[in-house]
Design goal:
Its main location: membrane. With 331 residues, the protein is an alpha+beta fold. It has 9 helices and 4 strands; from the N terminus they run H-H-E-H-E-E-H-E-H-H-H-H-H. The longest helix has 36 residues.
């Protein structure tokens, strides 16, 4: 009698709790999206960021700004023609020297010719800071515009190298993200063969990713967390994979309990109680393993540790709170 009365009193609380959790996550998502979209603003663009910590080359890079011109990253624009540079090519290089002056951190010297007369070099000094990628891209695009036929124009030097690295990550970011979503969707469809059920883990993972990106941005902006180029690519795949894995564990347990308990609120409560321990243990193990990368020397590996752990914990929190509410609401 007392037990049944207890279940009846707990039922209304459970029915209200799922809506409260859903509204809370709607508010969190609304707040997280603007911060998540600002994540590229805290990506470290300096050339020294990827060097091994404590190495002599890193120490030199850190000391270089103390010297005149040490805070600059040269962008070397090369104009090449296999048959020899023409007067039109020289005029193009001289025009670029004047046009690129607003981008340069110091006056641009006249173009220098190679010994064999088949190339010209223009040295444009750019500031080695977080604007380096954008200014290097403008330098490359402006120098290539209006080139005479047959003239090959390339950007090299530290500024060109930094731009190439950024472009490489940018070119693979979207394809990897799309492939990740397609693979996760295929796994969910093959597992559940439901036109609706597969959407819930996808929505769950998308929200976890926004939360993770927002936390990384806030820590990078206000706590000095190092965010390397290309980190978002790995974070996307990691959060979607982790969130889907934990969601599958919870879903399997929930479906088992539904066979024993027709009340989905009670079934979810029991499923959470039994699934929480292995899911939390898995998240803790993966997070601690990623944090071991803090001992790494290379900048990218070092950054992957805390940022990966943030992604895992974001997936855990969303799976253990939002997903149960969505499953109970949609039955």
């Amino acid at each position: 009698m007392l037990l049944s009365r207890k279940h009846r009193s707990a039922a209304p609380r459970g029915r209200l709790l799922k809506w409260a959790v859903l509204l809370l996550w709607v508010a969190i998502t609304v707040l997280a999206v603007p911060a998540a979209s600002s994540l590229p603003d805290v990506v470290e663009g300096k050339a020294s960021a990827e060097l091994p910590r404590g190495a002599q080359s890193t120490k030199v890079e850190e000391l270089t700004p103390r010297f005149p011109g040490g805070e600059l990253a040269p962008g070397i624009v090369v104009y090449a023609r296999s048959s020899g540079i023409t007067p039109a090519d020289r005029a193009k290089a001289e025009t670029d020297r004047r046009a690129l002056a607003p981008l340069a951190a110091r006056p641009i010297a006249p173009p220098q010719a190679s010994g064999d007369g088949k190339a010209l070099m223009l040295n444009v000094a750019l500031p080695d800071d977080d604007t380096l990628d954008d200014k290097a891209r403008s330098l490359r695009d402006q120098s290539r515009a209006g080139a005479p036929d047959g003239l090959d124009i390339r950007l090299t030097g530290p500024a060109g190298s930094a731009l190439d690295v950024g472009d490489a990550f940018e070119n693979i970011d979207k394809p990897i993200f799309i492939i990740t979503i397609l693979v996760v969707t295929a796994v969910l469809l093959l597992t559940y063969r439901s036109p609706i059920l597969w959407l819930l883990p996808i929505v769950n993972a998308a929200i976890a990713l926004q939360v993770a990106n927002a936390v990384v941005y806030l820590l990078g902006e206000h706590a000095g967390l190092y965010v390397a180029d290309g980190m978002s690519t790995i974070l996307n795949a990691l959060v979607f994979g982790i969130s889907t894995d934990y969601a599958l564990l919870l879903l399997a347990r929930y479906r088992e309990e539904l066979r024993r308990h027709p009340d989905r609120h009670r079934a979810m409560a029991i499923a959470l109680r039994h699934a929480a321990a292995p899911i939390v243990a898995s998240a803790a193990t993966v997070s601690l393993g990623l944090l071991c990368l803090l001992a790494a020397n290379m900048g990218f590996n070092y950054a992957l540790g805390p940022i990966g752990a943030i992604g895992v914990l974001a997936g855990l929190v969303v799976v253990m709170t939002l997903l149960p509410a969505l499953l109970v609401i949609f039955g």
